[in-house]
Structures are given as C-alpha cells and as structure tokens.
Amino acid sequence: MDDNPKLTIKQAYILAKADVGTKAAVRDAEQRAIAKMTKSSNQKVVKPGSTGKKSALKLDKTTISAAKRVGMDPMEYAAYANMSSLEDYERMKSKKKGK
Questions:
Q1: Residue 49 lies in a domain
Q2: CB 52, CB 46: distance < 8 Å
Q3: pTM value surpassing 0.90
Q4: Do residues 78 and 59 make contact, with C-beta atoms less than 8 angstroms apart?
Q5: Given CA atoms 60, 64, 69, 75 in this order, what sign does their dihedral have?
Q6: What whole-number distance in Å separates Cα of residue 34 and Cα of residue 63?
Q7: Residues 9 and 35 in one domain
Q8: What one-character-per-residue DSSP string does the chain give?
C-alpha cells in the first residue's frame, strides 16, 4: 500500500494474494460442492406415511436385558442371536459395509 496509497484494502489484498487467494477460494468451493454431494447421497427418501425405519422385530424382555448386559443394541443382539451359520454372519457384515 506504500507504493499506491489510493488502493483499498480489498484491492491491495487481491494484488498481494491473487494466485494464492484465488486458488484457496476455488479449493474451498470445490470442497463445499463435494461435501454437499456426499451429504445428499447419504440421505434416504422417506415415503409419506412411513417412519423411515425397518419394521421392528418384537423383542422380549429377556433379549433386551441380555443385550444391555453385553453392551449391545437390542436389535443387533437379536440379529446375532438369529444366526445359525458363518454365511449368515458374513452376509450381515457385507450388508453393513454397503450402508
């Protein structure tokens, strides 16, 4: 600003940081666009009249208390309890990875 005292602060900043400031602004805009796309792709469409959750299994008190005892979610505990083979377990794990 000493070279040209009539420059505004904005003009001086643009002259001093033109390339770096422009690149930073472009990168910031790209990151916002990526974040917006990621956020929107993770959202699920809920039809009117539905709760958006899968139909819940009827859990009895013993299942709920057993799940709490081992520190698990009752629905997850029931899913593990209903497995009878290694294939069932692998199928459930692959579904969880896909979500």
A1: no
A2: yes
A3: no
A4: yes
A5: positive
A6: 42
A7: yes
A8: --S-TT--HHHHHHHHHHHHHHHHHHHHHHHHHHHHHHHHHH-----TT--SSPPPP---HHHHHHHHHHT--HHHHHHHHT--SHHHHHHHHHHHHH-
Domain assignment of residue 54, yes or no? no
pLDDT at residue 56 in the model? 55
Residues with Cβ within 8 Å of 20's Cβ and at least 6 positions away in sequence, in order, are none
For 91, the domain range is: 61-98
> Quick check: is 90 in a domain?
yes
Q: What are phi and psi of 63, to 5 degrees?
A: -65, -45
Report the number of secondary-structure helices (H) and strands (E) in the chain.
4, 0
59 and 75 in contact (C-beta within 8 Å)? yes
Provide block-wise average pLDDT over 10 residues at a time, the chain (99 residues). 72 74 79 76 60 62 87 85 84 76
Judgement on whether residues 1 and 36 belong to the same structural domain of the protein: yes
Same domain, 33 and 72: no
Count of domains for the chain: 2
